[in-house]
Amino acid sequence: MSVKAFKLVSAVEREMLMGDKNYINIECIECCGKNLYIGTNDCFIYHFLLDEKVSTAGKISFAATKQLHKYLGLKKPVSELKAASALTRLLVLCDNTITLVNMINLEPVPTGARIKGAVTFTLNENPVSGDPFCVEVCIISVKRRTIQMFMVFEDRVQIVKEVFTPEQPCAVAVDGYYLCLALTTQYIILNYNTGVSQDLFPYCSDEKRPIVKRIGRQEFLLAGPGGLGMFATVDGISQRAPVHWSENVIGAALCFPYVVALDEEFITVHSMLDQQQKQTLPFKEGHILQDFEGKVIVATNKGVYILVPLPLEKQIQDLLAGHRVEEALVLAKGARRNIPKEKFQVMYKRILQQAGFIQFAQLQFLEAKELFR
């Protein structure tokens, strides 16, 4: 049954990005605070400032102001962007090379520091170095069956480790020393410090796009066989039941307590608390879905949209109004980690009371008695 958990709000209209140039397509996005960066197929980076506006009726909208755009000088698409805000650097992957550019003026660093031979890359959000003025970057190398770890500073890069994999890797996520890898036929966890690896489950990358996403400390979300969204820890076990996606999921994101997935026609929202599908939003031609510091962004080739979560209290009240007591209580308990303790206790008592009256009205006296207690 459905819950209104998110609203889809336009952030960057196609005219702002491409005017009447129909050949321009969005290849990748990055969002850091109010800064939104877009990489295109004609080798440009666009920088927008996003302002969130709330109307008196509580309706949220976004105003994007274009700051500048920069041509990287190649006839290749910009395939990935990642911000390292502590260094005021943007890491840009284009033509198998990661270039460091200034986040404000998009100029390359004067030293010309770069990482060559990268197919794709990701940042380690649980770094092991302890140096605040450095980011740890993991790349899938153009060398066959090779992963490389780098330390990236403001104006230089340094290789730390090169690791060989049993099959060709096609997607990677990092947590501390642990790499979660999609290989040609399976997912594995690999500790790049010790070299110890652990098989997770089989997967055919020729048939479907693999998804490997770090969702928290030592935990990953993966696109498994049979259209399942599977959770795995670095120990190779799953502490949560899987969610049922469609067979052709393109991207996934986490906005607690929800897992959001994108396929060719829809955005689907599943609860991590009871694994049920809660919302379906029609969305055609989407090809990017990512979460940035809790902000979930989706994009087509021509436009960028933000999935705005409705307040959890509003969602709980909607469930109670529909007499869906169990779901409301599960969501209320799950909301504990998002709400300050005192506020949560007041809210939870009120929800238990409301739920008790609903059960009472349905003549479920034992259940009502427990809730009133």
Under CATH, the topology of the largest domain is which?
Methylamine Dehydrogenase, Chain H
Uncertain segments: none
- Mean pLDDT, nearest integer? 89
The amount of beta strand, in percent, is over 45%
* Through-space gap between termini: 29 Å
Number of strands: 28
Share of helix among residues? 10-25%
Largest sheet: 4 strands, antiparallel
What is the gyration radius calculated from CA atoms?
Answer: 22 Å
CATH class of the largest domain: Mainly Beta
Walkthrough of the structure:
With 373 residues, this protein is mainly beta. It folds into two domains: 4-308, 7 Propeller (Methylamine Dehydrogenase, Chain H), CATH 2.130.10; 316-370, no CATH class. The chain has five helices and 28 strands. The chain has helices at residues 14-18, 312-321, 325-334, 341-361, 365-372; strands spanning 6-12, 26-32, 35-40, 44-54, 60-71, 78-84, 89-94, 97-102, 114-116, 118-123, 135-141, 146-152, 157-164, 171-175, 178-182, 186-191, 197-202, 212-216, 219-223, 228-233, 243-244, 251-255, 258-262, 266-271, 277-282, 288-292, 295-299, 304-309. It has a four-stranded antiparallel beta sheet. A four-stranded antiparallel beta sheet has the order 2-3-4-5, with no helix packed on it. Helix 2 packs parallel to helix 4. It starts with 5 loop residues before the first strand and ends with a helix. One of its GO terms (biological process) is endosomal vesicle fusion.
